[in-house]
Amino acid sequence: MSIAGLYATAQDYLRFAQMLANGGELDGVRILSPSSVKLMTSNLLPQGVPMHFLQSFVGVGYGMNVAIVLDPSHADFNGGPIGAGTFFWGGVHGTWFWVDPVNDIVVVGMIQQVDPGNPVTGRPYAAPDIRAISRSIIYGALVDPLL
Description:
Layout: E1 2-3, E2 6-7, H1 10-21, E3 25-26, E4 29-30, H2 34-40, E5 51-52, E6 56-57, E7 60-62, E8 67-69, E9 87-90, E10 95-100, E11 105-110, H3 130-141
Antiparallel strand pairs: 1-2, 3-4, 5-6, 7-8, 8-9, 9-10, 10-11
């Protein structure tokens, strides 16, 4: 699967996301230092500067190559609930991942779609928003959500 220039399998992408969720460790092996993961998943934008494409991501900050949910009550750009501190990113051709450390959730989604759209970048969805649908289904399935 191509992820905007990165080639990986769904399994490898999931292992990468799980490593980030584990604070830089996977299968008992330290891959990134905890401070590196903290830097990646902390908002590095100056106070008052929104994450922005053609429109702002309200309630969302940006770390090192991932977006971070700062205010779940406003971070509904992909529909449905999402936990504070969740970090995520999506690829240009329909890949996405998100990690919710509060609810201990790691999700990788991969479809291959030319211009799948993303309203915050000004590209309307050509089909139903599978990212939002998957998030709603996953959070709806939690027995005891910590949101």
